[in-house]
């Protein structure tokens, strides 16, 4: 059977199963016909299926042969489930798999197959429905081919048949029903029965009104697009069945008033619907020329395409239960194109001076050097969560509760930072001959505070850390993976022990790889927890910002692709989608890559275990700073890591830090402690990544301590 002999009303392809005797006989008959082309597309489709990240099970018994009589073609394809998975895979995750399934339950009707042809096709293209019902009594003429994406071979065919054939060639599994006689008030109820949404894009005003009156009875939403300045119209009769058709713009006009009107007589009613003041100047001018210099109102294929895209978006919103109220809007591309402008090629976030930040004039007085040492102490997010007061005989440091964060559970992280500041003050005091006793005080006006009294005590070991304290910095460069010398951890353990703490860690490649995966997952959770995400990006500072608090982005040592990822990672709306999809594995790449390139990951712990109070965390913070300085003396780059569970002590803490990921965090925390060899009677005060790497690009700036409460 040749293409030119296919019946003019055939629009469905025959889907044949060669396991069914009758279908097998038909296939044998078709293969024997002259001029039949036979194609087996299954090998390529199976290759595509194997590449999918979420491929369904595909049983070869589900494969089918499809016969297209108008093309005299027989094609073998995979079964419907595999076919749809492949064809819709590139929709993800603009449409998730679950959303695709939800949309496949919709039935969409399209009245009118000039502009409606493209609307029906795009609905099928995107998988926005599981059934299409289309209506048009007219046949394709050459003048229709300015907006119907057909060809010369379609001239003379019913417009529904042309649409149906095009969709069958796209997806032979999608049911399409046609009304080639069109619809009127006598068939409208039948057409609308079972539909989820109806799109009305026909020319007959009486049919337009009949469609809306029937849609009110059936409680079906009606969508319309007029192809001029992108006018899009929504009538949610499903939500408000008492609303008047056309938003009441036609007043008391009835179907009888509209039936059989000439183009000229239609014009007043059309104007009431479209609002003549909002028409494009070219359409408005053309309307005055109907039956004079033009036959009817003009339409452009690009306008039809825009309208189809708008309708498809609305159909998705209805099918997914998203907000779409009754009303109208204009999506005017001409107006938008009038607003074209040059993109901003200058990133002013980098407009500040990029000179290294570690150049400074060393303070001249001994006391000023002690205060400068406090300034140089590390803190989570460079928050500098302390208030410093200086008296005649002592320096008082206290945790500032206003500078806490979601991960600073019970001010434990702030207490660690206070301990590091106290250690630096002791080091500077020892080097300047001012060292006296120190005391840590729990409670009072601050969660925890510390006093360093001035005196004349000698401590050569503390004083020896003074140069290292001044140059201590976070180094986030990737490491080269060299193993640590055997004595390195022993040396660091001695430094920790001097402050009453311990060093636990992992140095083997397998262990580092596993812990990298755990902390990558922790970072993913940090991104996906709204409060933690907001605080994390609230800490970041571009060079054009005041970089004396927060994290100067230059210290992150980001590659160009990581800057691009950061721009996406900072968007809360993107994180909301990833959270809904249980996705975002790539959000942990930064942590994973850096730990994997390291020589060791260590935890500095204090011996108090579950009974640790803030004074233990302060002492642990002093140990962290002492270990950090010792590691840099050994030529190591040091980067603190901040797993979400760092200061978690119990299930209640887990819920407070990230209620949506409590179970996952508990599992990660348990596995992390086991890998790091942290016994239950010890509490982690910091996790440090050690590596051999280039010097940091810049060091973080600091606020002057006397500006923070003195």
TrEMBL record:
Any one Gene Ontology BP term: cyclic threonylcarbamoyladenosine biosynthetic process
Location of the THIF-type NAD/FAD binding fold domain: 90-223
Alphabetized NCBIfam families for the sequence: PRK07877.1
Stated name of the protein: ThiF family protein
Single GO molecular function: oxidoreductase activity
Organism: Nocardia alba
InterPro entries: Nitroreductase-like, ThiF/MoeB/HesA, ThiF_NAD_FAD-bd, Ubiquitin-activating_enz
């Amino acid at each position: 059977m040749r293409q030119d002999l296919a019946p003019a009303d055939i629009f469905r392809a025959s889907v044949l199963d060669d396991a069914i005797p009758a279908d097998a006989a038909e296939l044998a008959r078709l293969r024997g016909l002259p001029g039949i082309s036979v194609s087996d597309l299954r090998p390529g489709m199976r290759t595509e299926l194997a590449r999918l990240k979420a491929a369904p099970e595909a049983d070869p018994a589900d494969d089918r042969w499809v016969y297209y009589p108008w093309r005299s073609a027989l094609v073998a394809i995979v079964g419907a489930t595999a076919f749809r998975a492949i064809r819709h895979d590139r929709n993800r995750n603009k449409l998730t798999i679950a959303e695709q399934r939800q949309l496949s339950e919709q039935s969409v009707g399209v009245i009118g197959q000039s502009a409606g042809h493209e609307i029906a096709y795009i609905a099928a293209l995107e998988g926005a429905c599981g059934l299409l019902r289309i209506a048009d009594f007219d046949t394709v003429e050459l003048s229709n081919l300015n907006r119907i994406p057909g060809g010369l071979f379609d001239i003379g065919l019913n417009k529904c048949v042309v649409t149906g054939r095009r969709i069958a060639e796209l997806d032979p599994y999608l049911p399409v029903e046609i009304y080639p006689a069109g619809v009127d008030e006598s068939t409208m109820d039948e057409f609308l029965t079972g539909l989820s949404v109806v799109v009305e894009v026909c020319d007959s005003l009486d049919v337009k009104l009949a469609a809306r009156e029937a849609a009110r009875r059936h409680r079906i939403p009606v969508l319309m697009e007029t192809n001029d300045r992108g006018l899009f119209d929504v009538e949610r009769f499903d939500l408000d069945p008492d609303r008047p058709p056309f938003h009441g713009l036609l007043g008391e006009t009835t179907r009888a008033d509209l039936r059989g009107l000439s183009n000229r007589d239609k014009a007043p009613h059309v104007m009431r619907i479209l609002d003549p003041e909002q028409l494009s100047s070219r359409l408005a001018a053309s309307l005055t020329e109907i039956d004079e210099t033009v036959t009817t109102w003009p339409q452009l294929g690009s306008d039809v395409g825009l309208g189809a895209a708008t309708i498809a978006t609305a159909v998705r919103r209805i099918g997914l239960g998203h907000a779409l109220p009754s009303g109208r809007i204009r999506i005017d591309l001409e107006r938008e194109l009038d607003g074209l402008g040059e993109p901003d090629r200058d990133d002013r976030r980098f407009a500040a001076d990029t000179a290294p930040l570690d150049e400074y004039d060393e303070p001249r007085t001994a006391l000023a050097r002690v205060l400068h040492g406090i300034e140089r102490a590390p803190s989570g997010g460079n928050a500098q969560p302390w208030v410093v007061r200086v008296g005649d005989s002592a320096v008082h440091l206290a945790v500032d509760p206003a500078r806490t964060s979601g991960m600073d559970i019970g001010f434990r992280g702030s207490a660690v930072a206070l301990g590091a500041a106290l250690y630096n003050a002791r080091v500077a005091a020892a080097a300047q001959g001012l060292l006296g006793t120190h005391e840590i005080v729990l409670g009072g006006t601050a969660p925890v505070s510390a006093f360093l009294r001035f005196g004349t005590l000698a401590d050569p070991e503390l004083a020896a850390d003074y140069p290292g304290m001044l140059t201590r910095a976070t180094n986030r460069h990737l490491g080269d993976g060299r193993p640590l010398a055997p004595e390195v951890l022993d040396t660091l353990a001695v430094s920790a022990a001097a402050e009453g703490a311990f060093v636990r860690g992992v140095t083997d490649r397998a262990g580092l790889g596993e812990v990298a995966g755990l902390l990558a997952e922790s970072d993913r959770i940090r991104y996906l927890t709204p409060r933690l995400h907001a605080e994390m990006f609230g800490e970041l500072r571009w060079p054009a910002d005041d970089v004396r608090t927060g994290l100067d982005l230059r210290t992150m040592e980001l590659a160009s692709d990581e800057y691009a990822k950061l721009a996406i990672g900072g968007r809360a709306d993107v994180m909301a989608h990833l959270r809904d999809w249980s996705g975002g594995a790539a959000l942990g790449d930064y942590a994973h890559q850096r730990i994997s390139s390291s020589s060791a990951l260590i935890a500095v712990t204090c011996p108090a275990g579950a009974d640790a109070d803030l004074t233990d965390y302060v002492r642990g913070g002093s140990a962290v700073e002492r270990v950090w300085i010792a590691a840099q003396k050994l030529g190591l780059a040091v980067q603190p890591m901040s797993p979400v569970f760092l200061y978690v002590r119990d299930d209640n803490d887990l819920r407070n830090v990230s209620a949506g990921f409590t179970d996952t965090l508990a599992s990660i925390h348990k596995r992390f402690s086991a890998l790091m060899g942290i016994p239950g009677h010890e509490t982690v005060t910091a996790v440090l990544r050690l590596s051999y790497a280039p010097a940091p690009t810049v060091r973080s700036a600091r606020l002057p301590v006397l500006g923070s409460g003195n």
